[in-house]
Amino acid sequence: TEMVSVKDLSEKIGKPAAEIIKKLFLLGILATINQEIDFDTAALVASEYDIELEHKMDKTFEEVLSDEDHEDDSKDLENRPPVVTIMGHVDHGKTSLLDVIRSTHVTDQESGGITQHIGAYMVNVHGQAITFLDTPGHEAFTAMRARGAQVTDIAILVVAADDGVMPQTIEAINHSKAAEVPIIVAINKIDKPGANPEKVMQELTEYGLVCEDWGGDTVMVPVSAHTKEGLDKLLEMVLLVAEMQELRANANRMAKGSIIEAKLDKGRGPVATVLVQNGTLKVGDTIVAGTAYGRVRAMLNDKGRRVDEAGPSVPVEVLGFSEVPEAGDVLYAVEDDKLSRQVAEERRNKQKIQQMKVMSKVSLDELFSQI
Ligand code: GTP
Ligand code: MG
């Protein structure tokens, strides 16, 4: 049977929830604001206000969208590349590590094209792909999580062997733990004279990260971005941890992904780096992300080349949005051309109402402060 919460009913018929609860009480029903009541009861309450409740309580476009986001049948799932974020304290060598990994692990036919910076890129290790997110530090990570985008499968925590655990190291550990993302520690700069990897391992035990040699379950790999020592081992460990996670996706459905970063480009309009997380995004697809919607006009991969499709774990630059979406926004490709626009408009209206509420509160506060 059709159910509606007291809160939704109150919004639908424009009557205070408290009054509705009172009326329900008189009908012998003890209800709270979040309680679901059946259609007949709801209709009865509405009729007390001379309002006739329509039988089909229309769904919001947001609900239609989330209904389309059904779970995949396990038979449709295939392995997908792991998505890895590199975190760590300032100057511990995150960018240096990313740079050497990238420069040593693109295939010959791809190389030469690594000029594009799209905030994410893929490398190839013994025929297996790994996606790296080049997010600018923890803030982006936190922001994305706060907005519901869980994009990272594995975090590589970079700790400089000559500096040890520092404030942002601890922050990174906390973020990864909160997001339940497995951590692989890369103890970097082991080429330096003052390097002391053992000391780093010791310090990390205080934060619950105990290396396997010491009976723990955290993978720790001593590396050097300068001599490239340990890098192959690090990448192998990434693949190993990924394998245990059984990362899977269904390439044969409409795409769902996350906005990694976005900007307004003078010549090209709104441009967003999208990480496809499920399904396949195609040129021509109707899309919505936050309050931005549109149609994929063109896509560029991490090497700056035009592509027609992007499957699970593939990062692409997407052109064709109506406005600049925000990092962390979830992207959906939808079958129905109108739906993307409707969802975006509904969200914008909601934002407006939210802003109006804040503004009216502010002006009331101001009013009172002046009395
Ligand atoms: P932020 O982006 O500022 O947080 O720094 P980062 O973590 O990206 O560090 P970055 O890669 O910029 O490296 C900082 C400094 O450490 C640079 O001068 C690098 O050359 C140096 N460095 C990085 N890795 C190594 C290494 O393995 N060995 C040595 N000796 N120096 C390194
Ligand atoms: Mg850096």
From TrEMBL:
<feature type="binding site">
    <location>
        <begin position="88"/>
        <end position="95"/>
    </location>
    <ligand>
        <name>GTP</name>
    </ligand>
</feature>
<comment type="similarity">
    <text>Belongs to the TRAFAC class translation factor GTPase superfamily. Classic translation factor GTPase family. IF-2 subfamily.</text>
</comment>
<feature type="region of interest" description="G-domain">
    <location>
        <begin position="82"/>
        <end position="230"/>
    </location>
</feature>
<protein>
    <recommendedName>
        <fullName>Translation initiation factor IF-2</fullName>
    </recommendedName>
</protein>
<feature type="binding site">
    <location>
        <begin position="134"/>
        <end position="138"/>
    </location>
    <ligand>
        <name>GTP</name>
    </ligand>
</feature>
<feature type="domain" description="Tr-type G">
    <location>
        <begin position="79"/>
        <end position="248"/>
    </location>
</feature>
<comment type="function">
    <text>One of the essential components for the initiation of protein synthesis. Protects formylmethionyl-tRNA from spontaneous hydrolysis and promotes its binding to the 30S ribosomal subunits. Also involved in the hydrolysis of GTP during the formation of the 70S ribosomal complex.</text>
</comment>
<feature type="binding site">
    <location>
        <begin position="188"/>
        <end position="191"/>
    </location>
    <ligand>
        <name>GTP</name>
    </ligand>
</feature>
